[in-house]
Write a structure and sequence with these properties.
Elements (H helix, E strand, L loop, with lengths): L1 E5 L2 E3 L7 E2 L4 E2 L6 E3 L1 H18 L2 E7 L5 H10 L3 E6 L5 H13 L5 E5 L10 H9 L3 E11 L2 E8 L2 E8 L2 E5 L11 H7 L4 E5 L29 H10 L5
Parallel strand pairs: 1-6, 1-8, 6-7, 7-13, 8-12, 9-12
Antiparallel strand pairs: 2-5, 3-4, 9-10, 10-11
Helix pairs in contact: 2-5, 3-4
Length: 246
């Protein structure tokens, strides 16, 4: 079984966000980056678990510049067998998906996993685009994935209920919380990652479909007013006169 896991680089959740060039570009200066948690903790770890119990290989793919290779190496340290970096700085989800789908089509993967979304732009459409371009079935927001022969049994939480889906491979699945438990690379994995294959491919000549025109930070949060638990009258007065919610 061949599994392809799509990973992306995102700012750490504690990073201070700013923009440059009159608000048209994200300012990466002094920003700590990580692998998108939904890609790493759920999609990648579940792929490794499936490989460990059923055999096969796990390949990670990233669309991005050479600076991304340190994050790709972390994925290899966690247990992926090899990696591909498609050498272009993507400008939108379609450009990313088109490049991944073209690579996947030429390498016949049984299963393609993505995170349910990225935590920087909250984009969650790459998996669907890949499936459409590669003409594969797609299930989003999977919280549990089990495999029996060529059939996948998937649970996904929707509007307060759990939907159970079965489908045959090959297919594309986006993973969310519950799919797996996050792992930490051990020393053996870190050392092995340095010699695992990392192929660099030229990108397809795909133009982005969407252009980000301008970024604006949201208004700063107002200060929090603390009310003593022994003074509910003050809370009621504030809710009535200031918040005007009662």
């Amino acid at each position: 079984m061949k599994i392809l896991v799509c990973i992306s680089k995102v700012p750490d959740t504690t990073a201070k966000i700013s923009f440059k060039d009159n608000g048209t570009k994200f300012n990466e200066d002094k920003v700590q980056f990580i692998i998108n948690p939904y890609d790493e903790w759920y999609a990648l770890v579940r792929a490794i678990e499936l490989k460990e119990s059923n055999g096969g290989t796990v390949t990670v793919v990233n669309v991005g510049p050479v600076e991304n290779e340190q994050y790709i190496r972390k994925a290899l340290a966690l247990g992926a067998d090899d990696a591909v970096r498609i050498d272009v700085d993507p400008q939108d989800a379609f450009q990313t998906a088109e490049n991944i789908a073209n690579y996947a089509k030429s390498n016949s993967f049984d299963l393609i996993l993505t995170g349910k979304e990225t935590i920087d732009y909250n984009g969650g459409v790459v998996g669907g685009f890949i499936a459409a371009i590669a003409d594969l079935p797609y299930v989003s927001f999977a919280s549990k994935l089990e495999m029996q022969n060529n059939t996948l049994h998937i649970e996904r939480e929707i509007e307060g209920v759990v939907e159970i889906v079965e489908l045959e491979m090959p297919c594309v699945i986006s993973a969310q919380k519950g799919m797996a438990e996050a792992r930490i690379p051990n020393m053996r994995g870190i050392l092995a990652s340095k010699t695992k294959p990392l192929q660099v491919m030229a990108a397809n000549a795909v133009s982005p479909e969407v252009q980000s025109v301008h970024f604006t930070l949201p208004p700063a949060k107002e200060s929090c007013k603390m009310i003593s638990a022994e003074n509910p009258e003050e809370l009621i007065t504030l809710l009535h006169n200031e918040a005007k919610v009662i």
